[in-house]
Amino acid sequence: MTYCAKQIAAFENYVEKMMQAYEAPGIVVVLAEKGKVTYQKAFGVRDLATGEAVDGQTIFGLASVTKSFTALAIMQLAEKGLLSLHDPVVRFLPEFRLSQNQPADAITIHHLITHTAGFPPLPALDYSIKGNTQPDEGQAGEAEAEEHPPVNTMADLLDYMATGDYQMLGQPGAYFSYSNDCYGLLGEIIERVSGQPYTEYVQQHILKPLGMGRSVFTVEELKQFDNVTELYYRNEKDELVHSSNWQVAPPFTAAGWLKSCADDLIKYAQMYANGGDYAGQRLLSEQGIKLMQQGTLEFNQGRKYGYGLMVKTDYRGVTLVEHSGSLKGVSSNMGFIPEKGIAAVVLCNLTGVPAARVWLALINLALGLPIEQHYVDYRPFNWSKDMQASVVGEYNSGEGAKFRIELDAADQLSITNLLGTFKLQPVGPDRAVWRYKMAENEVRFLFAATGKAWAIHTGGRLIRRNNT
């Protein structure tokens, strides 16, 4: 399909505006329809020091886009009859336990793959990254600054989950809260069921059939390739920082450690858009692909989470299916529209860039919609003073996120987090948004019988209020 020059110019201006707002060094986007790449563009550089440009072959981190690969692997094993999505986790991981003798037997693979097992945000991934990643300059000794149990192996992760200081959010299936720990466990289940290391299974059954020859998991493998991006992030002083040290967290490989290029990743996205087949290679049945898109619990902006995929069923008459990712030096998004055979990917080498917004702009280009059309058109909503007072407080997560909600003398709500303090605008009976640069961030409140908020849902995580 050919897009009008005005729409393409509007899209490219939008990306450039996004890059300026966030100081993003490089972004690569690819759009495909019905099996053919219809638009591709590389913006900026992979290395600010050398000025080397990014292109379709530049290898970026995918971060949590990896979760869709893990979910696909689970679905493949299910179709082979080697497991059932409703098998209890303890069938494959008999040593799986929860802390404080909380019951684990009811948690199934379905709960892990949909983030509905009931785990709150936990610090295990952070422990693992700190214990296994080469520190950047000025960060030496950071790993020793805080006492915490080692999470260097799957045995360590299972031990942490059995002994850590946390309370489950509720019964399995009751709440959605995004959990890297769940996907770490899924990687181990894949290993035990298939008899192969997780990375080898994905390489043999997904990457190789799709011809994804520039897609790897480990830093050691990455050294075999040229045209690999450098990594960029912002430090606590909001300064742009360069790093050559890819984050490493062995027990969480299945949660976010695949690295790939746009030319490879668009093949993977097209496989979904074509119902499980790409270039004659069928990776999963059409029924299996549809099952991956069956949303469970809503988590934000009208989106639900299926099997390793986020689903919005009512975007201008079509379904948006996608997954985003974020790690040091990584902002990514991959997705498709099943009704139209449209697939799109976005890769960026700076943490914190709203790649999902760039991806949506790319989708808008394909659909002929205004480039900056949002997922949701939020409208102000009036809250009573009692309602405002009911959400005031501090909400901290085990992953390190901290939110403070306050009410000033003019009855204006604000939210303070690691980025600063922002106006919090109610947009529904239990929802509000705050805006930072070019992104809207939704906060949903969960209320106790007392009428006070006991938790917020933001960034996919359910975060409890302090002292409740």
Shape: globular
> Which structural class best describes the helix and strand composition?
alpha+beta
Low-confidence stretches: 141-145
Rg calculated over all Cα atoms: 21 Å
The share of residues in helices is 25-40%
Instruction: Tell me the number of strands.
Output: 24
Mean pLDDT: 96
**Assembly category:** single chain
- Helices, by number, come to 14
DSSP strand content: 25-35%
Tell me the major beta sheet. 9 strands, antiparallel
Which helices and strands appear, and what pairs or packs with what?
Elements: H1 5-22, E1 26-33, E2 36-47, E3 52-53, E4 59-61, H2 66-79, H3 89-92, H4 109-113, H5 124-132, H6 154-163, H7 180-194, H8 198-207, H9 219-222, E5 231-234, E6 240-243, H10 253-256, E7 259-261, H11 262-273, E8 277-278, E9 281-282, H12 286-292, E10 298-300, E11 303-305, E12 310-315, E13 318-327, E14 330-337, E15 342-348, H13 355-367, H14 385-391, E16 393-396, E17 402-407, E18 413-417, E19 420-423, E20 425-428, E21 431-436, E22 439-447, E23 453-458, E24 461-464
Antiparallel strand pairs: 1-2, 1-15, 2-3, 4-7, 5-6, 8-9, 10-11, 11-12, 12-13, 13-14, 14-15, 16-17, 17-18, 18-19, 20-21, 21-22, 22-23, 23-24
Helix pairs in contact: 1-13, 2-7, 2-8
